[in-house]
Amino acid sequence: MKISKEDVLKVANLANLELSEVEVDTYRSHLDDILTYIDKMNELDTSGVEPLTQVVAASEDDSALREDVVVRADIIAEVLQGAPDPEAPYFRVPKVIDK
Amino acid sequence: MSAQTTWTIPEVRSALDARKISARELVKEFYGRIEKRNPELNIYLALSPERAYAQADRIDAAIAAGDALPAMAGVPVAIKDVISTRGVPTTCGSRILQGYKPAYDATAVTLLERAGAIVLGKTNCDEFAMGSSNENSAYGPVRNPVATDHVPGGSSGGSAAAVAAGLAVASLGTDTGGSIRQPGSFCGVPALNPSYGRVSRYGLIAYASSLDRIGPFAHTVRDTATVMSVIAGRDPRDATSASVPVPDYAAGLGRPLHGLRIGIPDDYFGEGIDPDVRKQIEAGIALLEKLGCRRVSIRMPNTEYAIAAYYIIATAEASSNLARYDGVRYGPRVPGSTLIEMYRKTRGRGFGAEVKRRIVLGTYVLSAGYYDAYYLKGQKVRTLIAKDFREAFEKVDAIVTPTSPVPAFRIGERTANPLQMYLADIYTVTGSLAGVPGISVPSGKTSSGLPVGLQIYGPAFGEDRVLHMAHAFEHAGGSTL
After folding, report:
1. Three-state secondary-structure class, residue B439
2. Which of B150, B268, B332, B458 is the one with CA 20 to 30 A from A57?
3. Crossing angle, helix A21-38 and helix B353-366, to 10 degrees?
4. CA angle, residues B433, B434, B439, in degrees to nearest 5
5. Residues B57, B292: Cα–Cα separation, whole Å
6. Cβ atoms < 10 Å from Cβ of A98
7. Can you tell me the distance from the alpha carbon of B265 to that of B464, in angstroms, rounded to the nearest whole number?
8. Does the distance separating the beta carbons of B338 and A55 come in below 8 Å?
């Protein structure tokens, strides 16, 4: 067994994801299959191979960063309109600091 | 209402030029058809009639004034629901973004509208583009217009089906591990995944940032080429977009294929491939040879490790990208007594099963103690897969494979085993990891009448070459092989 129920709970905790008992069992068994399959990679000798993080674009000026200029977007109303609990110009959340 | 059900871009243009139809009438006609067919097919999640008619009126005014029309004037298009559209609901097929209306447009959408295209609405997809069948949408699966008890493929199933059903002339999808090409194959329409960096992703809601790309579906290869010339190019708002010059892709079509070397990876036709698919791809390769291509056997020795590397890298990046959905800024919130509890409940109920599975896997492979064994190893395997492509393109001009080892399957047939579903991405994930362009073009049908797609890979920024080959293939009767 590659992954235990406790591993799933620990990872779900890291990801701030509430899972039901049934979900924990199902995902554990799926992830076990997937991780067992993934072990296939260990057949490959990758010593001395550099990791590829991103297929970067070809030309030189692509790496150039643009100027850091502030541009007013004026979309606060539009942005807040879709928020679950807005109080312009803020998003309201449950109390974070205990007194 | 005109009797014509499927339109190409040149057909729209000549009908407008000849004043046979106005842009407004054309939009009305498409909405009429959508109203009739969408309840069954479930292709569109949201329509944008206000925006569409306003754009149509601009085109009609330009025609009346005798102005020169841009490349896609009056062309009704559909946009995958992971691509942002200002003021038009954009849910990514997820409950967690129900009701979300972006405050800005994706660059690809801006470019389409600037070229005169008319955005009809947003298309259904697997939640956050995670899936190969569209069954992971929170809003129910799309039905394949070719066989309505079958899946349209995924994750861009709605965009592929919209074109196949005649509910859009062209559409945009996104491809991370095959999500444009495979539904193109399942629905029987040309579908292009351009090179990484070719199309700006500003406004694309991220799944796996080192892999995600935007690309077109259309009825003809020529139309996909036209859309590509519109959406490709450097965008200062996307640091990963390339400033490689954008050719007029459509203008490059129609030349003979004589002398092109096509690489056929011998080990791609082994176990797991459907016999009808194999037969159609063999026939497709024979057709390319008849057109003057020379068949060359090649080896892509690291292919068998591609699925493993892909699912590590994609899920790791997803676990990070999807951290932003926390019930604070958009979408529904599930209340909790503390901030953390609110996050957990919102995410636990807002995300569907496949997304949660991938977040758990991605968080696991990135977590302390496993990073080197999984994530870093996956990136090293990615290097080797990119090397397979580089070495192949020293010997050949293009690589030809099936797009998918299987044709469209029945809805519900494959949901029980996620790993089985992942393994069917084998021909598409390799190109995703390597960053190269690939097109899926119809190559006849199976004995039960389901479309088969032939995939043509080119070197990075070789869109012109794959479009040129796919166009010649299509013109020689590829879709009726």
Report:
1. strand
2. B268
3. 60
4. 95
5. 47
6. 5
7. 22
8. no
Any idea what DSSP says for residue B413?
S
ipTM value > 0.90: yes
**Partner-chain contact B381 A46, CB within 8 Å:** yes
Nearest CA-CA partner of B75 in B184, B230, B251, B191:
B230
Nearest CA in chain A to B91: A82
Matching residue, tokens 């010593």 = A47
| Beta carbons within 8 Å of B477's beta carbon, 6+ residues apart | B287
Strands B76-80 and B170-175, sheet pairing: parallel
pLDDT given at position A59: 52
Q: Which two tokens stand for residue B281?
A: 């791809």
Amino acid at A73: A
DSSP one-letter string for B163-214: HHTTS-SEEEEEESSSTTHHHHHHHT--EEE--TTSB--TTBPPS-TTT-EE
Q: CA of B421: which chain A residue's CA is closest?
A: A34
Question: Residue B120: helix, strand or coil by DSSP?
Answer: strand
* Interface contact flag, B330 A83, Cβ < 8 Å: yes
Radius of gyration of chain A (CA): 23
Q: Which amino acid is at B387?
A: K
B343 touches chain A (CB under 8 A): yes
Instruction: Please write the tens of the pLDDT for every residue from B412-456.
Output: 999 888 888 888 999 999 999 999 999 999 999 999 999 999 999
Those of residues 147-166 in B touching chain A at CB distance below 8 A are none
Distances (CA, A) of B391 to A53, B196, B207, B265, B434: 20, 19, 29, 12, 12
pTM of the predicted model as reported, rounded to 2 decimal places: 0.97
Continuous H helices in B351-409? 353-366, 377-395
Q: Which residues contact B232 (CB under 8 A, 6 or more apart)?
A: B194, B198, B199, B246, B463
Q: Give B87-90's long-range contacts (Cβ < 8 A, gap of 24+).
A: B87/A78, B87/B51, B88/B46, B88/B48, B88/B51, B88/B119, B88/B121, B88/B122, B89/B45, B89/B46, B89/B122, B90/B46, B90/B122, B90/B205
